[in-house]
Amino acid sequence: MADDKETNKSPETGYVDLGFAKVDLARQKRQGMSEVIYGAGKTTEEIIAILETMQAHGQETVLITRLSEEAAGKIREVVPIRYDARARLGLMGGIPEPDGIGTIVVATGGTSDIPVAEEAAMTAEVMGNRVRRLYDVGVAGLHRTLSHLDELREATVIVAVAGMEGALASVIGGLVSCPVIAVPTSVGYGASFGGLSALLAMLNSCASGTAVVNIDNGFGAGFMASRINHVGK
Amino acid sequence: MADDKETNKSPETGYVDLGFAKVDLARQKRQGMSEVIYGAGKTTEEIIAILETMQAHGQETVLITRLSEEAAGKIREVVPIRYDARARLGLMGGIPEPDGIGTIVVATGGTSDIPVAEEAAMTAEVMGNRVRRLYDVGVAGLHRTLSHLDELREATVIVAVAGMEGALASVIGGLVSCPVIAVPTSVGYGASFGGLSALLAMLNSCASGTAVVNIDNGFGAGFMASRINHVGK
Amino acid sequence: MADDKETNKSPETGYVDLGFAKVDLARQKRQGMSEVIYGAGKTTEEIIAILETMQAHGQETVLITRLSEEAAGKIREVVPIRYDARARLGLMGGIPEPDGIGTIVVATGGTSDIPVAEEAAMTAEVMGNRVRRLYDVGVAGLHRTLSHLDELREATVIVAVAGMEGALASVIGGLVSCPVIAVPTSVGYGASFGGLSALLAMLNSCASGTAVVNIDNGFGAGFMASRINHVGK
Amino acid sequence: MADDKETNKSPETGYVDLGFAKVDLARQKRQGMSEVIYGAGKTTEEIIAILETMQAHGQETVLITRLSEEAAGKIREVVPIRYDARARLGLMGGIPEPDGIGTIVVATGGTSDIPVAEEAAMTAEVMGNRVRRLYDVGVAGLHRTLSHLDELREATVIVAVAGMEGALASVIGGLVSCPVIAVPTSVGYGASFGGLSALLAMLNSCASGTAVVNIDNGFGAGFMASRINHVGK
Amino acid sequence: MADDKETNKSPETGYVDLGFAKVDLARQKRQGMSEVIYGAGKTTEEIIAILETMQAHGQETVLITRLSEEAAGKIREVVPIRYDARARLGLMGGIPEPDGIGTIVVATGGTSDIPVAEEAAMTAEVMGNRVRRLYDVGVAGLHRTLSHLDELREATVIVAVAGMEGALASVIGGLVSCPVIAVPTSVGYGASFGGLSALLAMLNSCASGTAVVNIDNGFGAGFMASRINHVGK
Amino acid sequence: MADDKETNKSPETGYVDLGFAKVDLARQKRQGMSEVIYGAGKTTEEIIAILETMQAHGQETVLITRLSEEAAGKIREVVPIRYDARARLGLMGGIPEPDGIGTIVVATGGTSDIPVAEEAAMTAEVMGNRVRRLYDVGVAGLHRTLSHLDELREATVIVAVAGMEGALASVIGGLVSCPVIAVPTSVGYGASFGGLSALLAMLNSCASGTAVVNIDNGFGAGFMASRINHVGK
Amino acid sequence: MADDKETNKSPETGYVDLGFAKVDLARQKRQGMSEVIYGAGKTTEEIIAILETMQAHGQETVLITRLSEEAAGKIREVVPIRYDARARLGLMGGIPEPDGIGTIVVATGGTSDIPVAEEAAMTAEVMGNRVRRLYDVGVAGLHRTLSHLDELREATVIVAVAGMEGALASVIGGLVSCPVIAVPTSVGYGASFGGLSALLAMLNSCASGTAVVNIDNGFGAGFMASRINHVGK
Amino acid sequence: MADDKETNKSPETGYVDLGFAKVDLARQKRQGMSEVIYGAGKTTEEIIAILETMQAHGQETVLITRLSEEAAGKIREVVPIRYDARARLGLMGGIPEPDGIGTIVVATGGTSDIPVAEEAAMTAEVMGNRVRRLYDVGVAGLHRTLSHLDELREATVIVAVAGMEGALASVIGGLVSCPVIAVPTSVGYGASFGGLSALLAMLNSCASGTAVVNIDNGFGAGFMASRINHVGK
Prior knowledge:
The structure is a homooctamer of 233-residue chains.
Chain A: E1 15-17, E2 22-24, H1 27-31, E3 36-38, H2 44-56, E4 62-65, H3 69-76, E5 82-84, E6 89-92, E7 103-108, H4 114-126, E8 130-134, H5 142-146, H6 149-154, E9 157-162, H7 167-175, E10 180-184, H8 196-203, E11 210-212, H9 218-229
Parallel strand pairs in A: 3-4, 7-8, 7-9, 9-10, 10-11
Antiparallel strand pairs in A: 1-2, 4-6, 5-6
Helix pairs in contact in A: 2-3, 4-9
C-alpha cells in the first residue's frame, strides 16, 4: 500500500539504509565489534541483504544469533557462513586469535543449560577470547563444583549459566575474586516461570561481584565477558 | 447492630464456640498438638478468652504465633505466658522432654534470617524435639556451610531458612540424605519482592528431598519438621 | 567451533565426566538413591550415554523423569528400561522390596491429576516404599474424601495432588497427624495460571504440617515422601 | 487556580451536582437501594455534604463504607449516623424489616476474617435481609464446618469469607445447593500476597455455584447476596 | 508398575469408584444437578466409562464441558450424546422444561466472546432455565447496549461475558437491579494477558451487585445463574 | 440447541443485527471512521457477512485487522479486498487523499518491529494521513536516530514502535515537541515477557508528551495518531 | 567522602550544571515548555536551587509536581510559588492566556479521582489551554455520563481519569471522535493492585482513539493533552 | 528459651563464630575485599560485635551498607566509623589509594537516583578505584548525555543508575565500548512497581555489553565495577 523506503541514503553517517534496516558500519570502531544480527523476527532475505551489505563494505566477521537451522541452510546457499545448531549461531568470517587479558570460564548447572552456554562461549571466542567450558557442575552435587576450584580461580571472568533455582551463580560468586556474569536459563518447569525464578535468584545473589543478563541471553553474557576480558585494552 | 453469637453450643463436637472463635479441643488427639493461636488479626481480648477456655478444658501447652510485644505484656497480666520478642512467640505451659526420632537442625543463610529460624526452632522444641541451631552459614561463604557438614549429616530433618536468592536449601539438600524443609524469608530488597525470589528458588531446587513452606513461616517449618521427626511414633 | 570436553577425568572424585554431564556415582552413598536423570532438555544420545556409564559402574536402579514416549522407544533399543507413558517415567533396573516405616498415601483431587500422582507414586515405589493410591477424592464431593478417613489416618506420609484451587491439601492436612506433601498441578484454565493458583493456596494452607513442592513435581513429592518414610533408618 | 464547579445543575436528570460529586437520587428506583458512599478517598466535608443533600431529597437510609473512626466522629457532630468500628461502616437511617426470600448465612474461615464478614452481614441487614453468622468454621478443623451443616443447607445464599488459601468456599460450595458468594480476604502473610492467593483459589473453585467478589469486599458480597435473596421480588 | 485400584467399592456412600474416578450419584440430591464431567484432561475411555456408570445408575442428564470435537465423535459411537462445537459441550439426555423464576439474559461484548457465552447459555438451559441471548452489545457502541435496556431490566439474572477491558459488566451492572454474573474471557492480545485484564476489571467493578467467575468459565456462570434463578425453590 | 437470534431488528437504531454481531452503521458519523473489524476470533463467514452488510448500507472503506492470510484468501473470493500479509490487514475500499494537519512519522527500534509499524502506518493512511516511515532507528545506534532529527521535528505526531526495553519512545520524546504515541511490541525474549518490559518502560517514560497503547497494537496507534492529526477539523 | 561536582560548566550546551542536577534551559525551545521539576525524591534545597537558577536565566513559568505541603511552605519562604495541596502542584510564575485549538475536558469516574484530575487540569492550564472539568461521571451511573454528552463531543481532547475498573475511558471513547487520554488511578483496594487493574483495562480498551499514561500521572496526561491541543501550532 | 550458640569455635576455618554471625576473616584473601556488613535486619549490638571482632583480627577496612543514621550514631560511640547519610553507608578504616586499571564513571538519569549512585561510587572508592560522577544526564534531555561523551568514552567501566524506564543504560551502552553495569532504582511511581519497570528494561537492553544488578543495589554495582577495573591484577 505504501513504499517510501529510501536506500543507501547516507553512507557518510556511518550506516547504510536498506529501508527495513540501517546497517551499522561504524560499530566496530565505536563498540569494538562489527554488527551482530539478531536473527529472530527477520526474514532470510533480510538477513542475506544485511550480510551482503556488510561484505560489500569490508566487514569481515559477523555473528547471527537466534538463527534457525532452516534459515541457516538458505543463507548458506548465498553467503558462506558456519552454523552451530545447538547454540543457534551463524558466523560469517573467521574466529580471531585470542587477544584478551586471560581466560573466560563458561560454567553450567546442568546438561540442559548447554545451548545457552555455547552461545556465550562461541560469542566470546568470535570476539577474541580464550574460553574454558565447565558443564554440569551444579550445586546439587557440590563436589562437582568444588573439584574445579582451580579452574574457576584462574579465570579472568566467569559466565555462570543455570536454570531452575539459579544457585550456581551465588556459589561460584562466593568462591572467586573475578567478575561473574550470571545467565538465567528457561530450563525448568512449573514455578520456574520460563526462567523468572533463576533470574530473580541471580539478581538477589548474596555473593558480591555478580551481574545478570536476560534469560537465555548467552550472547549478551559472552559479549559482556569479552568486554571485561579486554578492559583497558 | 447485630448479635447472634451463640456460646458454648456444642462441647460434645470437640470444640467450644466463643462466637468469634471455635476453640478446638480435639486437635491434640487428632493432630498431635493442642491448638495453636495465630496472633495476627486477633485482639488481645480474643486471645485471652481463647487461652482461658483452653486452660479451663485442661489444655496445658498452647503456642501463640505472630504476637506483638505489647499484646504479650497485656496477656501476661491475666494468663501466665512466656514470650520471645525475636521470634514473636508466646507460650502458655512448659516445654516437654524431647521424644522425637533424632535431632532437627535449623540453619540460616544470614543473621537477618534468625527471627524466622527461632520461630521454627522454638516451635519444634515446644513439640518435643531436640534442636540444633546453625546460623549464618549461607552460600556466599561456602566454607562456613561445609565446616558444619557433620552436624548436617547427623540430622533427622533440616530446616533451611534463607532470604535473598535462597540458595542455602539447594546446597544443603545436595549434601545430605534426610528431608529438608525450606523456609524462604522476606530478608532482602528490590527484586526479592518480599521473599518471592527465595520462594521461587526453593520451589525450583535442583536438589531432591526438599519441600517448601510459606515465606517467613518459621512456625509451619518447625511444625512440619516435628511431624517428620515423630513419623511412625 | 570448539571442543575442549575432557572425558573420564576424575573417577576418584566420585563422578565420571562425559563433557556434557558429570555422572554422579557417589550419590547413592551420599543421598540414599542413585542418580536420577531429568529427561527434559537432554538428547536421547545423552541419556543413553549416562545410563551406560552408570551400568558400567554398577549402578543398578536409575529413574528417568519427564521422558517422552518416543525417546523411551529409542533408548529401549540400547538399554533395557521399563516405561510408563502416563507418568512419563523410565526405569532401568528393578523395584526393590518396600523397607520404609509405613505406607505412603498418594491422593488426588481429580482424575486429571493422576499423571502427576503416578509420577509420585512410582518414584516412591522405586525408592522402597509401600504406596496406596486414593484418586479423585477432591473437596467438591467431601463425602468421597471422608469415606477414606481410615486410610488417610493410617498413612505415614501423604502426598496430596491437586490443581485448580488446591484445597485438597488443606482439608487432608486438617484431618491427619502425619506430614503432608502438597503437589500443585497445572490442571485448570484461566486464572489457574498454569498451577500458580494451586501453588499459592497450598503455601498458604491454614492446616499445619504441610509443605509444598513445585507445580507438577510428582517426582519431588515421591522422593520427599520416601525420605520421610525412611527417617532414622 | 480554577473553579468551574456548577452546583444543583440538573435535578431533573436524577442527580444533584455538587461539583466534586453527582449525588444519585434515582438509584433507589433504578437499582433497588439508595446511594452508598464509598468513604475512602473522600474528605469528611465531602461526605457530610453528600449526606445532607440526600437528606434534603428524602433519602432515608444511606450506608457509608470504609469509614474511619475519626471521620465517623466528625460526621456525627453534624449528621446522625451509627458507626461500627470493626466493619468500618457508617449508617444514616434505620435498618428495615427483613423482606427477602430466606436467610443469608455469612461464614468465615477464621477469627481474623470477621471485619470483612461483618461488612457483608451488616450491608445485607441494611438491605432488608435476615442474616445468620457462622464464624471461625475454616477447613483446618472440618468438624467445625460439618457441625453447622443444617444451617448451611437451610440458607438461601451463603457468603463465604476466608483469607490464606480460601478453601472454605470450595468446601461449602460442595455441600450445599444454594448460590455461594466467595469473599477473599487479605488475612495472611508472605505468599498470600494481600489476598491474591485466596482470590485465585476461589476463582478456581472446583465446586460449581460459586462466584467471587474483590478482596476484602464485604460490602459487595452483602449487596450481591441481598439481590439474590430478593430475586423475582 | 502398580495396580491397587478398587472398583465399585462403596455404592452405599453415594458414589461408584472406578479407580481413576469416583462417580458421584448423590449430587443430584445434594446439589440439584447430576454429575458434570470436566472433559479436559480425561481420556475418551474415561469419559465413556463415567457416562455408562451414570446411565446404569439412572442418571438421565449429564453435561460434559470442554469436550473436543474429536472426542465427542468417539463417544457418540458408544453413548448417545449431542454436541455443540462452538461451546465445546456434550450432553447426554434431554433438556428439561424451564422451571426457574424468570429469564436469564446472556450478553457479550463482542462476537469473539460467543463461544464462552454459549457455554453459559446452554448450561443454564440444561438446568431448566429460559435464556435470552444479547450478543455483541459492548460499550464501544453504547447505543447497542442501551437499545436492549428493556430486555436487560426484565431479566432475573444477567450473565455478562466480555474480554479485553471487560467494561460490559460495569455498564450493565449500573443499569439494572438484578444480580449480574461477570465472565471475563481470554479474547484480546498483549496486555490482556489471557483474560487477566478483564478479570481484574470485573473484580473492581464500581457497580454493586456483580460477582465474577473464572476466565472463560461459561459453565460456572450458567450454573450460578441457574442457582440464582431457582433460589427458594 | 438454541436459536433466538433476531436479524435486521432495528436499522433505525443505527446498526444492523446479525445475531452474532451488531453492525454499526453510525460510527462514521459518531467517531469519524466507519466500522473496523477485529478479525481475530471471528470465522471467515462472519467477516464476509459483516462486510456484505456494510456494502449493502453504503459503507465504502472498511479495515479488517489481525486477518490471517488464509482467511483473506477466502474472503477475496466473495468480497474484493486488498491484503497486506506483513501487517495482517485487509482493506475493502480505497485509500482517501490525505486531509490531516501534517505528517505522521512512524518509527521503529528494529527490523523485527516493522509488522506492527506497518499496521499503524497503513491504518493512518486509510484514515487520510500522510505517513513517513523511519525504520530501524533504535537507541543502540543513537546516530541512526539523530540523523533523522529533522524528519522527527517536522512531524505532527510520531508513532514510536519498539520491543525489548522500549527506550525509543523516551529518546524521541525528549527530542521533539509534538505528541508521541508509544507502541510496545512483543519483540524480544526472556524477561521481555511478551512485551511487558517495553510496555512498562513506555508508561514510565521520563519524557513528557508520550502516551501508550496496548502491546503490538499498531492499529490503535495509527487510529490515535490520525485523530490527533485531525484535531479541530 | 568525595566531591567532584562541577558547577556551571557549560551554559553554551543549553543547561546549567548544579552537580546534582543539570538544569535544562533549552527545553522551552525544544519541547514547547520550560523545565518541569519532579518534586518527589528531591530535597527542598535542591528544588530551591533549581528554581533560582531558572529565574536567573529568565525562565518565567516552572511547574513542580508531587510537591508536599511541607516542602511548598519552605520553598515559599525563598521563592514565590503558588501551591495546590489537592493536586500537590507548585507553580512559579503565572498562568498564560489559553492559546490552544479548543477545549480540553478532564473527566473523572468518582470523587476520589479528583486529585489526579486536578494535576492534569492545572498542568494543561499552565500550558495555555482552556479546561472544562466533569467530575464523578463514572459508568455505575451512566445517566450522569450521558447528561454531559454535549460537553464531551465539543472537546478537542478528553482526559479520562478513573480508578477501580477504569471503564470510563472505554465508554467515553465510544461516544466521541476526538483523542482520549486515559489516566488510571490508584483509587481502589484489593485486586485493584494500586491501579494495575485500571491500567490494564485502559490499555485493552475496545474503543479506538485512546492512549494511556502511567498510574496517577495527571501531569503527563495534562501535558499530552496540551500538545494535542496545540498540534500544528 | 534455648541457647546453643557456640562462640569462637573454629578460627582455623577462616571465620569467627559469634553464634548469630560467622565473621569471615578469609574473604580478603579469597574475594579481594574484607567483610562487608549488610546493615539491614541486624541490631546495632550485632553490628558492633562484628566490627570489634574484625578489628581484633586485623581487618582494617569494613563497609557497612543500608545503615540508618540512628544506628550509625550509636555505633560511633563504640567504634570509630565515618557515615554518609545519603548513601546510608558506614565505613570503618580509611579509603585506599586508587590502584585500578582506569576510571569508573557513575552516571544517573536524574537527581533522585543520586543516593543509589553514591552507594556505588563510594563502594568503588573504598575498593581502590578512581570514580567520576555524572549526575542527572537522563535521556529526556539527550544533549546532557551527549555533552559528556568524552568522559563516558574514557571510562574503564560505567555504572548507569536510573529509575522510571531505565533507558539510560541502553543509550550509554550504545555509545561506548567498555562494560556497563546497569542499576535500576525504585525512583518512580505507579507502573514503575518499585523499580521493576527499570529492571526489566535494563535486562532487555538492545545495547550489548550491559549487565544488571538488583534494584537500588548501588553497593553491588560499585563492587562489580571495581572487580572489572581490577581484572587481571
